[in-house]
């Protein structure tokens, strides 16, 4: 009972600690201008260790890190672990004739994993961003009568999730040399929540006698959802004695369940003028709508992967797909600003730890990670489906000596998104990932009842 009370307090603490958005102002605006479309820009990985391998998650296990993309991985946890991370993304935005620079800073999330039941069960708890909306776009045009007008579009917010999940070993058979197989399943119960606040303004020169117009909308989304996963681990090369290096495989599949997100929208339309000091002075309210109900029907998503590994290295390939063309929006007065496409991601990544599972010097205990991914985006802008390619690499440095598996995770991803054709914006970014994983000393047992004979 005491263990579950501690876990309950952790859920409350994580939920309070996770901000809706931690962002820093840049030249272009805080985030990508493409976050103005759809549900924003999806974050991907919940922790740095997975992000440094291209965002792998379907067929990845880490004894000291929580892989929430597939809850079947929770049974592979060997120690209680706490994780958090952040991302800094400087970006160069380029069109056919211009370029600008921006920077985004944000949290990846907070999570905790706890193994129990003699290694047959694992629990995962956490909060993490799902998508981010953060843009500031200015567009100057000339109307048909020769009047100049400046349009300003500003958006902020996004979706987040709080989750709790269980992993369970359905069947496992091992011999004395650890040859054999294991089948595990898992499920996460998540609560999606967030808001998207958008402001659209039409600003006219003072001498036209026209009032400026402002449309401010606030969309609130929330509802439960979940994902399911399965893992199957087995031998590719059996160990004949304890000095042999075994070779193993892991196949994994995870499903994001379809979800009906409840929506609530407020909208305020006003006419205003700018004073000599640039202060907005409202002249009249054109319309005001509060609490307009609706829903977003999110489609099913699937990820599948296959990993080959031994005590020192892992190599994994993964495919992630989601049918965004099936997204349905039924909120009066609200429509998605553009067409969506079915998304697909192809990932190849891996890791290497020279010392294997135990021992070694500082650099031999360091885990070296790398990955590459190719993403067919769910956004279609000006008739063009966006595409993205990124290459990541980094290290997980051991912390606090050899008697703990705590790590400092550090790395980067270099990538490109979009094109300058068809009037689009191309993004070039160099993302920096920083994260920390905390585990107890190997001589300590957290969340385990002590017995005194």
List the helices and strands and how they pair.
Layout: H1 2-17, E1 41-42, H2 48-51, E2 81-94, E3 99-116, E4 121-142, E5 148-174, E6 180-203, E7 212-237, E8 247-256, E9 259-274, E10 280-298, E11 301-309, E12 313-322, E13 328-331, E14 343-352, H3 362-365, E15 367-381, E16 384-398, E17 407-417, E18 426-438
Antiparallel strand pairs: 1-4, 2-3, 2-18, 3-4, 4-5, 5-6, 6-7, 7-8, 7-9, 8-11, 9-10, 10-13, 11-12, 12-14, 14-15, 15-16, 16-17, 17-18
Counted by DSSP, the helix tally is 3
Structural category: mainly beta
* Rg of Cα set: 25 Å
Low-confidence stretches: 1-29
- Termini separation (Å)? 21 Å
Task: Provide structural commentary.
There is one protein chain. A 14-stranded antiparallel beta barrel has the order 2-3-4-5-6-7-8-11-12-14-15-16-17-18. Residues 1-29 have low confidence and may be disordered. It contains 3 helices and 18 strands. It has 453 residues and is mainly beta. The protein has a single domain (2-438), classed as Beta Barrel (Porin), CATH 2.40.160. Helices cover 5% and strands 58% of the residues.
Keywords:
elongated, 5% helix, single chain, 14-stranded antiparallel barrel, Porin, mainly beta, 453 residues
């Amino acid at each position: 009972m005491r263990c579950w009370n501690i876990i309950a307090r952790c859920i409350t603490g994580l939920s309070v600690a996770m901000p809706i958005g931690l962002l820093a102002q840049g030249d272009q605006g805080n985030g990508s201008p493409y976050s103005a479309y759809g549900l924003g820009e999806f974050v991907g990985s919940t922790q740095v260790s997975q992000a440094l391998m291209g965002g792998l998650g379907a067929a990845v296990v880490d004894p000291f890190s929580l892989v929430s993309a597939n809850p079947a991985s929770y049974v592979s946890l060997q120690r209680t672990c706490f994780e958090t991370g952040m991302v800094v993304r400087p970006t160069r935005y380029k069109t056919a004739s211009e370029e600008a620079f921006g920077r985004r800073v944000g949290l990846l999330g907070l999570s905790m994993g706890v193994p129990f039941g003699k290694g047959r069960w694992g629990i995962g708890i956490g909060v993490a961003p799902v998508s981010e909306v953060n843009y500031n776009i200015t567009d100057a045009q000339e109307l048909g009568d020769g009047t100049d007008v400046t349009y300003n579009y500003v958006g902020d917010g996004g979706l987040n999730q709080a989750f709790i999940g269980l992993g369970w070993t359905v069947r496992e058979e091992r011999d004395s040399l650890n040859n054999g197989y294991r089948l595990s399943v898992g499920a996460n119960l998540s609560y999606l929540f967030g808001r998207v606040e958008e402001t659209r303004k039409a600003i006219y020169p003072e001498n036209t006698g026209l009032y400026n117009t402002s449309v401010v909308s606030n969309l609130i989304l929330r509802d439960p959802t979940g994902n399911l996963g399965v893992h199957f681990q087995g031998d590719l090369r059996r160990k004949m004695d304890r000095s042999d290096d075994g070779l193993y495989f892991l196949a994994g599949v995870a499903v994001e369940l379809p979800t009906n997100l409840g929506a609530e929208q407020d909208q305020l339309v006003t006419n205003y003028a700018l004073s000599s000091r640039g202060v907005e002075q409202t002249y009249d309210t054109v319309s005001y709508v509060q609490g307009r109900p609706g829903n977003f029907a999110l489609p099913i998503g699937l990820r599948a992967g296959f990993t080959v590994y031994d005590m020192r290295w892992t190599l994994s390939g993964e495919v992630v797909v989601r049918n965004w063309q099936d997204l349905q929006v039924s909120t009066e007065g609200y429509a998605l600003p553009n067409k969506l496409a079915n998304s697909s991601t192809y990932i190849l990544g891996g890791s290497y730890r020279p010392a294997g599972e135990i021992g070694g010097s500082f650099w031999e205990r360091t885990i070296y990670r790398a990955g590459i991914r190719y993403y067919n985006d769910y956004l279609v802008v000006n008739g063009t489906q966006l595409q993205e390619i990124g290459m990541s690499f980094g290290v997980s440095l051991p912390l606090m000596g050899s008697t703990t598996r705590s790590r400092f995770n550090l790395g980067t991803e270099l990538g490109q998104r979009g094109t300058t054709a068809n009037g689009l914006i191309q993004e070039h970014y160099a993302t920096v990932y920083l994260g920390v994983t905390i585990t107890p000393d190997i001589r300590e047992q957290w969340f385990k009842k002590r017995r005194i004979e």
